[in-house]
Structure formats: structure tokens, C-alpha cells
Write a structure and sequence with these properties.
globular; alpha+beta; about 20% helix
Length: about 325
């Protein structure tokens, strides 16, 4: 609760600062009875001071998404911006304004804090209550409005902001960034980045509604016949071969690279939320998909990174350390 109050205080302070700056930039002030007109900061559509321009752009662009900021204000600078939900909740979000045309809003990250802790504390995208058949949806984070974490801390902890359920999107972008990497290094340090261009979210609008329609719940479907959504991807960092190389050779025989897949089941009818960069062709997605429901008949598969920790070099089924020690960042556009 103290974290939420701290976030609210920070947002309130920021909004007061925004209001002050807007008044300062656009309203004539009076000093000792004499009106003073502020000097222009833009001449012929160009900022006189480029650095001031970056901050001014961020102050005046409160919007519902980074795409709206891009389209309405012609902003091309990556960074943190203030967004607002339909109900008027303000929050900070990271905007990727340079990849594939820009306008991407970071809405979530899946970070595995301890891969050997199966559905334990910190497994917010599966279950923090243990492997429990009476809780088939676990924490339910894929289909609820609970938020957690911070945008800047996305590579150090799980993250989910209001945009996850509020923004209306058509496509996603996914980044795999090494754990604890600072925000300014994300693009250069990414081991994998890709985005969709199929507009596969047009019907549901976002992942929140997608997972309402296709719940990540044990027993809600069967392998192969009950996939929630699948889309081809365009790689920004990496390619099909480098994606396959992140997994053991046995696992690589069970999927096709170059796709992103949402809501799949294994042989035991255990549910996984997302297969990053791949489309399953067999019934063991626990070795290359993440974010599970709250119950797995094979208990050592339960957790945010399911069974990705099975040895990459010995059993040839799990994922490499490069992958298991990286956070999965989700963007909307």
C-alpha cells in the first residue's frame, strides 16, 4: 500500500509541475506591474533549444497511448511520458518512438525473480499461492486490472500498468532484455526484439480482453485445438534462427520460429499465456512458453517461466540462460 501511495504522490507532484510549466510557457506574467511576454521556444516549428524541446514535448503530451502522442504531437523521442486512462487515472509509461514507426507503449513485463521457485512469491504472471488445483487461474494477472511494478524497473521485477487493460491496440511488440539492465541500454542490450503487423488484436482490443475470451486456466482447453491467438512477427533484433538457438535442440523440434502465440495448453491441459517468438507444433509448450495458470499436474512446471529451467545442455529441452535471465517486455500499438 505504501508503494501505491508513493506512486500517487509522485504523479500528483508531476501533474502540478506540468500545470505550472504550461502556465509558465503560455500565459503572460506580470512583474512589478509590467506585463512580460515569455520568449518563444519554437520558431518556424523548430525548438530553439533542442534539449528544452524534448522536455517541453513530454510536458504537453498527456494522452491515452504513445501512438496518440506520436500522431497528435509528432513526437519521435523515446522515453517516459504521462498517459491517462479513460477514467482519468494518470501514470508514467515508456514509449518506444523509434522502432518500426514508433508509437509503442510498454504495458507489461514478465520477470522471473527465481526460476526454481515454482509458483512462489514474485510469480505474479502465474501464481504466488503455490500449485493449487483449487486456483486454476492462479493470480489471474493476464485478465484482471491489478497493476504492479514500475516502467523503469521492468527488467528487475514484474510490471503491469493501466494501459494493459485500458489502451485499444492492434499489434504488439516484444523485447527480451537482460535482467537488471537500465532503461537507456534496453535497445542495444536486447537479445530479441520483434513486432506484429497483422493487427491480430483488432477484435479484442488488447491482451486483457483477449485473455478474458481465452482464459489462462487449467482444463479450459486442449493442446492444438484451443489456441487463443497466433501472429507472424517481424524481427527488429534477431531472427528465426537466433530465436530457435535460445532453446535446446529437442525443444526446437516442437515449435516454429517467427510467430507469437497466446494461450496454449500442454498434454496435461495446463495453460500457458504466451509463447515468445514461436508457434507450438507439439504438446510440450511448458519448455518454451511462459506465464501459466495456477495449476500444473506436473508441479515443477508451475511458475512465470514454467519449465524453461530444464537444462539447456543436458536434457536439451529447456531454454538457455540468456533467455531465462532476461525479462519479457510487452508493448501495444
Amino acid at each position: 500500500m505504501s508503494i501505491r501511495r508513493d506512486e500517487e504522490l509522485k504523479l500528483n507532484t508531476m501533474l502540478r509541475f506540468v500545470s505550472f510549466m504550461m502556465c509558465f510557457l503560455h500565459v503572460q506574467h506580470t512583474v512589478l506591474g509590467a506585463p512580460i511576454t515569455p520568449k518563444p521556444i519554437i520558431i518556424n516549428g523548430t525548438y530553439i533549444n533542442p534539449e528544452l524541446g524534448k522536455y517541453h514535448a513530454r510536458l504537453r503530451t498527456v494522452a491515452r497511448s504513445c501512438l496518440e502522442i506520436r500522431d497528435k504531437y509528432n513526437v519521435t523521442q523515446d522515453g517516459m511520458y504521462i498517459l491517462s486512462t479513460a477514467s482519468g487515472t494518470y501514470y508514467q509509461a515508456f514509449c518506444d518512438m523509434s522502432s518500426a514507426g514508433g508509437g509503442w507503449t510498454l504495458v507489461a513485463s514478465v520477470h522471473e525473480n527465481y526460476i526454481r521457485g515454482k509458483c512462489s512469491s514474485g510469480d505474479r504472471w502465474s501464481s504466488q499461492q503455490g500449485n493449487d488445483q483449487n486456483r486454476p487461474e492462479g493470480d489471474g494477472s493476464w485478465a484482471n486490472t491489478h497493476t504492479f511494478g514500475t516502467a523503469e524497473g521492468s527488467t528487475s521485477d514484474d510490471y503491469k500498468n493501466p494501459g494493459y487493460y485500458d489502451i485499444s491496440a492492434e499489434d504488439v511488440s516484444v523485447w527480451h532484455i537482460p535482467n537488471n539492465e537500465q532503461l537507456r541500454n534496453w535497445p542495444s542490450s536486447a537479445i530479441l526484439r520483434y513486432h506484429t503487423e497483422s493487427r491480430f488484436l483488432r477484435e479484442t482490443g488488447n491482451l486483457y480482453h483477449l485473455f478474458k475470451k481465452f482464459p489462462v486456466r487449467f482444463g479450459a482447453g486442449r493442446c492444438g485445438s484451443d489456441v487463443g491467438a497466433v501472429s507472424p512477427v517481424v524481427f527488429d533484433t534477431g531472427d528465426k534462427d537466433s530465436t530457435a538457438d535460445l532453446y535446446g535442440p529437442s525443444a526446437g523440434k516442437e515449435f516454429e520460429s517467427g510467430f507469437v502465440t497466446f494461450r496454449v495448453f500442454n498434454t496435461d491441459q495446463a495453460a500457458m499465456a504466451m509463447c515468445s517468438g514461436v508457434r507450438p507444433t507439439q504438446c510440450n509448450p511448458q519448455h518454451y512458453c511462459i506465464g501459466g495458470g495456477g495449476y500444473f499436474p506436473t508441479s515443477d512446471q508451475c511458475g512465470d517461466f514454467t519449465a524453461l529451467d530444464q537444462s539447456h545442455t543436458h536434457t536439451h529441452t529447456g531454454a538457455s540462460r540468456r533467455l531465462t535471465e532476461s525479462a519479457v517486455l510487452l508493448f501495444y500499438r
